[in-house]
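Below is a typical protein record.
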Amino acid sequence: MKKILALVLVTALLMSICVTFGASAESAPLGEITIMTTYWTPFDPENNLIKYVEEATGVKINIDYNLSADYATKVNSVLMSGELPDVIIGASVTTLMDQGAIVPITQYLTEEKLPHMVAGLEEDDYVYLKSATDGEVYSFPYKHKMPEAMSFIIRTDWLEKLNLEKPQTWEEWLTAWRAIRDQDANGNGDAADEIPFTGNAYSLMPAFGIPVSCQSQGNYVTTMPDGTYNLIWEHPNYRVYLENMAMMYSEGLLDTEFASRTLTESYAVMNSGIGGSMQAFAEQSLTTTTALREVDPSMKCECIEPVEGPLGDKLIPSRSTIAAKGCVTVSGEEKIDLICKVFDYLWSDEGMLLMNYGVEGYTFEYDADHNPKIISPYVDSFANARGAGLNFQMLPTCWTLDSYMQILCQGKSYDELPEANKFFYDGLFLNDPYFVKLAPQIATDAYSTYSADIIPAVLELQANAIAGRISIDEFFTGYEALKSQGLQEMIDANAAASAMLN
């Protein structure tokens, strides 16, 4: 693990170049573009790196910043007004397409127009950028070169108290969950308040070979055994999953709020000292351990290898390293050369150095080997880095692994990290053999037409089957009945879109 950290911090993507930020501040701009975007604190619209992008590209960038809380309403107002910016970032691509507000940029994703961006994209990245309706690309990409993010976490101090090793097989996990349920693992005198496995119904699907995230509310598409994409309920292992979730619920091993518990709510359960395990971002091992140790310094929550299901599947969803960001509006296409110049710069060596490390002497310094090192206070937390404008994720930038790791480790070596921070770091890499990419969110016309009625109906059937209010066979009877009401069209549309995207 230490070798990995050393490799990351010393060699991975370190750009030993001197930045000269292009055109001077006094140069007449080549033109200007307008960008509408959302943002969240601590990003500061008045103090960031945009001016340096302007200097480097010679393009004046006018940004309309909007807090994320009311951004969808603001986008709708702009669409109704007809006075569109050149680029809209962070809005629903499907909505923008339906309104005829944006144009495809597929023809501009070339070595001539966007050489740095195209060079930085991998072939399978395009699956996450293409529209499921026509196969065109409508958004510039944002890329994060850190697929490691999720992990299973477990109260290892409870395992020690219960004389149990870290579970690996399905039977070992069941043994651990049952012990947590029965033996007052938190020692508060109430043997019934522990939740052996907390979280929503999707958290354990990967243990049954169904790649999906615990954050999957809203995206019910998974990768099938043949590599195509379709709804999770169509996966051949879904029945076995459903049977085992019903068994766990009946035994009191599964969170009673499995149908609705959000990730944030699950974290609160773990931090309160009643949760035994869950699927989470690896960082939660640090956060939960820190919270618990305010009560008892011996408490700890560590990352652990994924649950291996009864069919032998052992998977964990990786972070999506590619995301759709800025869309060029119909009127903005007239300025496509300027837009491409700005966004391609962000993917150049110079642009990545600027966006990942900032300004020499202010947010970073070069070490003896001329590698950029983010300095305190900006390296102390992701919030501090964002506050200085580093890796503003609403722009189509490329976040390097080295920059991420510097901030994650607060500029320290592995040996210098506190124990709880090591839990977080270890959790990122112990799952490397088990990471699997998630399916893209496929927004077909059939999905848009029927999902508002069909999805809630299927979720209700699923919840009732897990809770034992209906049998497994009754779930599938109800599921089949929905196919004549639009579900089959959704399934067929997903299959067709999958063939086009692949």
